[in-house]
Write a structure and sequence with these properties.
By secondary structure, this protein is an alpha+beta fold. Helices cover 20% and strands 38% of the residues.
């Protein structure tokens, strides 16, 4: 009888634990991109964005033959990771970092417009309209091992960009979701020619009051190729 009572209590305990366990959403990232080049074949051969996790899997890259990102539908699926219910204004990750990962599966125009092709500046043109020139963009790695990326991005069909800066710690780690000033952005769009370092930037972080991604991502930058790997978990804390 005593053994049955112990077994009964154990079953109740296990059932209670299972009810109180909440599985965390995951965001697993495997990214590669080549910078400092305008050669579409080189970009296509060295760049990809692979994601697995709670909101679906992505295995994307840029196909230089067709000039398109494959497979189609990546932005819609990707938006489920970076925004609540796909709404990018309710961002679950630093805005700049979310935009940056798309370099793994985008066409050469984005590299040039955003200032990552090695020219040292960013400028976007749509039809006959040209946006401002942003000098001082690109990617660097200093003697302490800190990788710093400065780029511009004009959303939609506009030519006026936001500016973003993202950087690692001395071990090449992007520390996501911790509100650090390693992630910064311009307050609004830039409408005049300007040097990147002359713009006052604010801390770039997830939308407050909502769940967000947290974790460390390992970056390695060698021979103009940047890789980023690691896993994030979604938290409400």
């Amino acid at each position: 009888m005593k053994k049955l009572l112990v077994l009964f209590n154990l079953i109740i305990f296990l059932l209670s634990c299972s009810k109180n366990t909440v599985s965390q959403s995951t965001f697993n990232i495997d990214f590669s991109a080549v910078f400092g080049s305008t050669n579409a074949d080189i970009i296509s051969s060295n760049s990809y964005l692979k994601i697995t996790g709670s909101y679906g899997d992505i295995d994307g890259k840029y196909d230089f033959i067709t000039g398109a990102t494959t497979p189609t539908g990546i932005p819609k699926l990707y938006s489920k990771y970076v925004g609540h219910n796909g709404n990018l204004l309710n961002n679950k990750i630093e805005l700049g970092f979310g935009e940056f990962l798309l370099f793994g599966a985008t066409d050469i125009d984005r590299y040039s417009h955003n200032g990552i092709s090695g020219s040292g500046y960013a400028q976007r043109s749509v039809d006959t309209v040209s946006g401002p020139i942003i000098n001082g963009t690109g990617i660097t790695k200093d003697d302490n091992g800190i990788i710093t990326i400065k780029f511009a991005h004009a959303p939609g069909n506009t030519v006026y960009p936001y500016l973003f800066m993202i950087k690692t710690d001395t071990n090449g780690i992007f520390r996501i979701g911790q509100g650090l000033d390693d992630f910064k952005r311009s307050k609004g769009v830039i409408s005049n020619d300007i040097n990147f370092d002359d713009v006052d930037l604010i801390v770039d972080k997830h939308k407050s009051g909502l769940s967000y991604w947290v974790g460390d991502l390992q970056a390695i930058y060698e021979n103009n190729i940047l890789t980023i790997k690691g896993s994030l978990v979604e938290t409400n804390n």
